[in-house]
Amino acid sequence: MNKIKKMAIYLLIVTTGFSVFYFFFDGISEDFLPFFIISLILFIIILPDKKKKASIKKQEQYAALGLDKQEIDFFRETMSTAKEQIVAIEKNMIYTTKLQAIESRNNTVKIMHGLFKGITNHPLRLHEVDQFLYVHLPSLLELTTHYLEINQQEIKNKAVYEAINESAEGIDQLCQDISQDYATFFTEENEEAVTDAEHAKK
Q: Which parts of the chain span the membrane according to its record (predicted)?
């Protein structure tokens, strides 16, 4: 535990003691509130940040795999962008029954999250999923957004309905492409596991 956190804990104990003292003797008075506010601030400072700890742990794991700081930063930035796109696609997919049907048929949301998790666990395989990260995800986000825009038009003519159907077909194809990305990634992972096991037996 670093010195700053130790000092924060000590001050928290002191200010909490004063807060309790003034509360019992004076209630919520002008003397009570400053100590109470300071106590809250100190509590927030020393409260463990689980996300930060998890992030540090991940960085340590990536470094152990041989990635330098620049490579780790690039990987984290890439995956952060992918996460944002996945969340946006997931939201788009629930807006119309047509998109819900496409998603349900291809199990797209679950597959996207599963592949995302697989990539974060195997950062050295980032180059194997370039189609998923740089083509299929952004294209699916763009196409689902476009589909919702044209579908929300109040006046629809033949051209609009054709555009809606074409977009739906494109979305369905991209969902299939992502399913193939998932299958390829985890098939190769299983093959590597089998190969490693065979080498271990020799």
A: 7-25, 31-48
